[in-house]
Specification:
The complex is a heterodimer of chains A (127) and B (448). Chain A is of the alpha+beta class and 127 residues long. Chain A has a single domain, classed as OB fold (Dihydrolipoamide Acetyltransferase, E2P), CATH 2.40.50.100. Chain A contains 4 helices and 9 strands. Chain A has a 6-stranded antiparallel β-sheet with strand order 1-2-3-9-8-5. Chain B is an alpha/beta fold and 448 residues long. Chain B folds into 3 domains: 49 residues, no CATH class; 111 residues, Alpha-Beta Complex (Aspartate Aminotransferase, domain 1); 258 residues, Type I PLP-dependent aspartate aminotransferase-like (Major domain) (Aspartate Aminotransferase, domain 2), CATH 3.40.640.10. A 7-stranded mixed β-sheet of chain B has the order 2-10-9-8-7-3-4, sandwiched between helices. A 4-stranded antiparallel β-sheet of chain B has the order 13-14-17-16, with helices on one face. Chain B has a two-stranded parallel ribbon with strand order 1-15. In chain B, helix 3 packs antiparallel against helix 11 and helix 11 packs across helix 13. Classes of the chains: A alpha+beta (127), B alpha/beta (448).
């Protein structure tokens, strides 16, 4: 199970990569592996605003579908349209293939997320 | 032994002995005595089959159907001709006795006709995807409301009062439990008041819902409504249609609708005192993952043969649980088949012929009524197969007089639109003859 060092993670297995007041958001390796072959990715519209833990999109495999939640509150600046054309990119590399780029509304919310070390421990407990 | 229960006293005794009960009463020991009836039901003594048949036949003759009366009533339920092939096909036991296929892929025949129905509805409405059907147009509006609020994350539905009032009541029931706000827009001369519509669309608008032809039979300016709706970011356009009208009118898909719903009763399904009817709903590929209900898709089996499956199931409640946008997992099986057989039997030309004849006859009836000088048009707008007329005479009196002549009169608009007090909505389908229309107008002319 790949866990990247410089990212923050949620208990629902989203990751967030912060760069100033912007951040990329995607699903962690564990999530894509649990879902299996991903056949559809639903993304929000640019400029949509979401609260922390609100579903901003969904990922669908052949036999399951999962909502993807906001690790922190923010406004959508960009969406990764490549995922709409080829959802399997999330299986191939869930960290390279981010889902949305957001503008953070409240950077202090990042403090409640897990770093890579905590997340690895969390994964062990989950297993 | 009772005539309607095939167990003999011996059968009963054997069954009771097997479970160790003394009498049938023993089976209800858990129910306290004071809530029991404690006496036999007050039923007449049993009757022979012949007697029962005679009683019921006599009783059923008190019903009047469109076979006994000449029907000029519409308002959402229509007396169109049903070719005999429809009942012939749906009465086959392979179709007639099978309800929802629980092991769906085993029921290839059922899946195939649903797939063909979906294809026909998608083509007719000009949309990409249809589901396997809903209960009626009311459930169509309700499910569309759930879709649009889920897609847009807004909770206001702006609906024109020219949408069928019964369907709007179902919509409001859905909205009430889903926490949506329904804003109703008044009509202006029988069509949606566009100025008022525009004023009521805002950043909370999930969708605008209109009906075309509308409840008064009038052709709405859907293009203008589409432009007003889509000027608001995210807002979606839901159009309810009479499928027969699509034989001559532009499809909602061509006019920019995001979701199309409608009442499929016109498509080969009898009036039957109000149901069961058939709701349809169709949308664009962009929104198909939010489409309610089941969807049948085409695939190939292990040998590469064409086969059918339930598809896009990850949206549905058995997989998405409480996250599913809709809880509908049933469809209107036999009526779906009836409408598919109807559409195929009529074909493009046939459907157009029904639409053209209905329109022509409705306009003939309209002109004849106006020519009497006694009746005036309620609105001055282009109409399809229904039109509203008003006069000095109360609607009840008009309809009572017509009924004496075995004519089923129009819909009294004051039931839902008190401002149109003596307004009557007449419907003329392709089934009406010139003679029948002339008789109607004659009787109307004679009412004092």
């Amino acid at each position: 199970m790949r866990v990247l060092k410089d990212l923050l993670y949620t208990k629902d297995h989203e990751w967030i990569k912060v760069d100033g007041n912007k951040a990329y958001v995607g699903v962690a390796d564990y999530a894509q592996e649990q879902l299996g072959d991903i056949v559809y990715v639903e993304l929000p519209d640019v400029d949509d605003e979401f609260e922390i833990e609100e579903a901003f999109g969904a990922v669908e495999s052949v036999k399951a579908a999962a909502d993807i939640y906001m690790p922190v509150s923010g406004k959508v600046l960009e969406i990764n349209e490549a995922l709409e054309d080829d959802p399997s990119l999330l299986n191939q590399d869930p960290y390279e293939n981010w889902m949305i780029l957001i503008e953070l509304s409240d950077a202090s919310q990042l403090d409640d997320l897990m770093n890579a070390k905590d997340y690895e421990k969390y994964l062990e407990e989950e297993a | 032994m009772y005539p309607y229960i095939p167990n003999t006293s011996d059968d009963e005794k054997k069954m009771l002995d097997a479970i160790g009960a003394k009498s049938i009463e023993d089976l209800f020991n858990d129910i306290p005595d004071d809530v029991k009836l404690n006496r036999p039901l007050n039923l007449e003594s049993s009757k022979s089959e012949l007697e029962v048949r005679n009683i019921l036949t006599k009783l059923s003759k008190e019903n009047k159907t469109v076979n006994d009366l000449t029907c000029f009533l519409g308002a959402g339920a229509y007396d169109h001709y049903i070719p005999s092939v429809v009942n012939h096909v749906i009465s086959r036991s392979e179709f007639y006795t099978s309800y929802t296929p629980y092991q769906a892929e085993i029921s290839q025949g059922t899946l195939q006709y649903i797939f063909e129905y979906q294809t026909l509805i998608a083509n007719l409405t000009g949309m990409d995807v249809s589901n396997a059907s809903l209960y009626d147009v009311g459930s169509g509006l309700g499910e569309a409301a759930i879709m649009v609020t889920s897609i847009t994350r807004k909770n206001e539905i702006v609906v024109s009062k020219t949408v069928n009032p019964d369907a709007r009541r179902v919509l409001k029931t859905y909205a009430h439990v889903q926490g949506m706000k329904v804003i109703e827009i008044d009509d202006l001369d029988g069509a949606t008041n566009l100025e008022e519509l525009e004023k009521n669309i805002g950043e909370n608008t999930a969708a605008v819902m209109v009906q075309n032809p509308n409840f008064f039979g009038i052709i709405e300016d859907v293009k203008a409504i589409e432009e007003i709706t889509h000027k608001q970011k995210k807002a979606m356009l839901v159009v309810s249609v009479d499928p027969i009208s699509l034989g001559i009118l532009k499809s909602p898909g061509e006019l920019g609708a995001d979701i199309v719903v409608g009442e499929g009763q016109s498509l080969g399904i009898p009036l039957s005192f109000g149901g069961p009817y058939l709701g349809f709903i169709a949308t664009t590929q962009k929104h198909m993952r939010k489409l309610s209900g089941r969807i049948v898709g085409e695939s190939v089996d292990a040998d590469g043969n064409r086969a059918f499956v339930l598809t896009l199931q990850a949206r549905e409640q058995h997989i998405r649980r409480e996250k599913a946008s809709s809880n509908i997992c049933s469809n209107q099986g036999l009526n779906t088949l009836a409408s598919a057989v109807y559409m195929v039997a009529m074909g493009k030309k046939g459907l157009k012929e029904v639409a053209v004849q209905s329109t022509a006859k409705a306009h003939y009836a309209y002109k004849s009524m106006i020519n009497t000088g006694k009746y005036k048009p309620l609105f001055d707008k282009p109409f399809f197969k229904e039109f509203a007329i008003t006069s000095e005479i109360p609607g009840e009196k008009v309809n009572e007089t017509l009924l004496k002549e075995d004519i089923l009169g129009g819909f009294l608009l004051n039931k839902y639109y008190p401002q149109y007090e003596n307004g009557i909505l007449y419907c003329v389908t392709e089934k009406r003859t010139k003679g029948e229309i002339d008789k109607l107008v004659n009787v109307l002319e004679g009412i004092k």
